[in-house]
Write a structure and sequence with these properties.
Blueprint: E1 7-13, E2 17-24, E3 27-35, H1 42-55, E4 63-68, H2 79-94, E5 101-104, E6 110-111, H3 113-116, H4 120-123, H5 127-138, E7 143-149, E8 154-160, E9 163-164, H6 171-177, E10 180-181, E11 196-199, E12 202-205, H7 214-221, H8 241-250, H9 261-289, E13 297-301, H10 305-311, E14 316-318, H11 319-322, H12 334-340, H13 342-355
Parallel strand pairs: 1-4, 4-5, 7-13, 13-14
Antiparallel strand pairs: 1-2, 2-3, 5-6, 7-8, 8-9, 8-10, 11-12
Helix pairs in contact: 5-13, 7-8, 7-9
């Protein structure tokens, strides 16, 4: 059995992506994200873990800290089944010794794969809590709001004096409070943004079909980094601007040739405004619920952090700059990926703080 090394690898096992962060003595050495359509089968996760082992040789000798949301996919009978099966797979794929893989169970602390079933409710979809606690620890005074906008969801979490204020823990409770919004900047079906959309001099009903996604909007506005655009388009066609315009046009029963490129760009901005309005409303609701002022500083994270900056009228700082500790010799782009993969960075940092 290889000797343990001093690396901690943080994992965020999602339903559509796997995010991983390698740290040593609290500093981020490297971060990566892989597209992983888990709903299509566990083989996709096994393939992703093999890619991670190829990227980081000797990974079996490291300590692993895991959080997840992948238990939600419809591959599993229920969330408990998902947590159990993911925990067993990850321990078998990553560990070379007992206790090398530990699962973040939020308020309940950490557990091994053998106990993951008993702790499934605390483990399930706790990645937001890891990020929020990491941010809170970095801000022991004053107030802030974590705004983590990813490919599929947005987390809006109030912080004060080094504490996470919400008592909600489950996705259902956070959906009720507005702290979880199923809006992202890549995979969200565009028809989820609004029922009616402005086009030229009138408003049209939106076609409630999977014709386009948020990625089409932000690809056209130029705000979505191509490296974060990892999933197929709604029609499995190209991601060039012409194909993007064709998908947007279908949302109102038109073809790309029915308007100019400039008009389709304006149309994309109309969708952007609708999404921002939804997020602004939920942000205000969360602030009010926890007694935070309208000028509370935002801490942005996720591949949609450009929207967090748009929401931050009173200022927005980046998680990767203000919270994550990037090693001086980390590869180029590590800070940018730490911003996108905040839960994996956070879960590694929390494990380091609590165990070493």
């Amino acid at each position: 059995m290889p000797a343990a090394d001093d690396r901690i690898v943080g994992w965020d096992i999602g339903g559509a992506h796997v995010k991983a962060c390698v740290t040593r003595r609290g500093q981020v050495l490297d971060v990566a994200q892989w597209a992983c359509p888990l709903w299509q089968g566990l083989a996709h996760l096994e393939h992703t873990l093999a890619a991670a082992r190829a990227r980081w040789p000797g990974l079996a000798a490291a300590q692993h800290a895991v959080t997840m949301t992948g238990e939600m996919v419809d591959l599993f009978e229920h969330r408990e089944d998902g947590v159990r099966r993911l925990a067993a797979l990850l321990e078998g794929a990553l560990a070379d010794r007992p206790q090398a893989v530990r699962f973040y169970a939020g308020d309940a602390g950490w557990c091994g794969a053998d106990d993951a079933g008993a702790q499934w409710l605390q483990i399930a979809s706790a990645n937001w809590l890891a990020t929020a606690r990491h941010v809170a620890l970095a801000r022991p005074r004053g107030e802030a709001m974590l705004v983590d906008i990813g490919s599929t969801t947005t987390d809006l979490i109030a912080l004060r004096a080094g504490r996470v204020l919400t008592t909600a823990r489950s996705d259902a409770a956070r959906l009720a409070s507005g702290e979880l919004v199923y809006h992202g900047v890549v995979r969200t079906p565009l028809c989820a943004f609004t029922r009616r959309i402005a086009w030229r001099d009138e408003e049209l009903n939106v076609m409630n079909e999977f014709f386009a996604t948020a990625a089409d909007v932000y690809r056209l506005t130029g705000e979505l980094d191509p490296a974060h655009d990892q999933h197929p388009s709604a029609d499995n066609a190209g991601k060039d601007l012409d194909a993007t315009r064709r998908r947007l046009a279908r949302m109102i029963g038109l073809d790309a040739r029915d308007a100019s490129a400039q008009e389709w760009l304006a149309f994309a901005h109309a969708w952007r405004a609708q999404q921002l309005a939804v997020l602004r409303g939920e942000l205000a609701r969360v602030r009010e619920a926890h007694g935070l002022s309208d000028d509370t500083l935002l801490v942005g994270a996720g591949c949609g952090d450009f929207l967090a900056r748009a929401l931050g009228d009173s200022g927005c700082v980046a998680y990767a700059n203000e919270v994550a500790r990037i090693a001086p010799d980390a590869p180029p782009g590590t800070r940018a990926w730490a911003q996108v993969c905040a839960p994996s960075v956070a879960v590694a940092a929390l494990f380091e703080r609590e165990h070493r």
